[in-house]
Automatic annotation (TrEMBL):
Origin species: Streptomyces pakalii
Protein name per UniProt: Phosphotransferase
SUPFAM superfamilies assigned to the protein according to its UniProt record, in alphabetical order: Protein kinase-like (PK-like)
Domain of life where this protein originates: Bacteria
Residue intervals of the Aminoglycoside phosphotransferase domain: 5-108, 112-167
InterPro entries hit by this protein: Aminoglycoside_PTrfase, Kinase-like_dom_sf
Lineage, opening ranks: Bacteria, Bacillati, Actinomycetota, Actinomycetes, Kitasatosporales
């Protein structure tokens, strides 16, 4: 099928313009997007901010998603540009996690489970004129909310420790702000961080250097917690 301009590339997917309203998200190494579509449809029905899902494009592959074209920066772009501060960004991430975890599980029969994004960090939050929208649901699952909080915090800590990340040191105030906001929701404990660390250790898309910083990242999260 014909795709338009390449708008961006991540670790697993490329995003192409289709027209002014829709984009094509094409995974390079995923065989099927059925589950991701199901999760997005489910949380969207509860009013959680996700991109609208478009009709399948002619000639689409099983690895393709047609999604609403969003206009605006990511939270990761807005922070260094001074469009909002660490405290405001931390409050936004915490609110999104809180609202997501208020949604009952779609398939789990455990009443303590909820929907988890498991990759909710500044690059996966788009700031549109209508408000924040959460993208990239490829890692979504169901389970205890503490795991999701820990995954977000551990990702921020790992970025803060990355010497290749030019604004790495600036992530620490955001991490502290997020952890402060999450304190009333149960915070991020060592018990939450253990499975989060295992999950990130097993992530095939992380580099060996990123995996090597996970222990230090766990310590940074615990040291930054109120």
């Amino acid at each position: 099928m014909h795709t338009g301009q390449l708008l961006g590339s991540g670790r697993t997917a490329d995003v192409y313009a289709l027209d002014g309203s829709w984009v094509l998200r094409r995974y390079r190494d995923r065989s099927d997007t059925t589950e991701e579509l199901a999760v997005m449809s489910y949380v969207g029905a509860f009013g959680f901010p996700v991109p609208r899902i478009g009709p399948p494009a002619e000639g689409a592959r099983p690895t393709d998603l047609v999604l609403q074209r969003l206009t605006g920066p990511t939270l990761a772009e807005a922070l260094p540009a001074g469009r909002l501060g660490a405290a405001e960004a931390g409050a936004l991430l915490a609110r999104l996690l809180r609202e997501l975890h208020a949604i009952p599980p779609r398939v789990s029969t455990n009443p303590e489970d909820c929907v988890l994004h498991l990759d909710l960090h500044p690059e996966n939050v788009m700031l549109t004129a209508e408000g924040a929208v959460v993208i990239d649901w490829s890692s979504a699952a169901e389970g205890p909310p503490g795991l999701d909080r820990a995954m977000s915090a551990l990702t921020l800590a790992r970025i803060a420790l990355d010497p290749a990340f030019p604004a790495g040191a600036d992530v620490r105030p955001l991490l502290a702000a997020l952890l402060a906001e999450l304190a009333d929701d149960g915070g991020v404990s060592a018990a939450d961080l253990a499975p989060a660390r295992t999950r990130q250790q097993q992530n095939p898309y992380l580099t060996e250097a990123e995996r090597g910083r996970l222990d230090e990242a766990v310590d940074l999260v615990l040291d930054s917690s109120p």
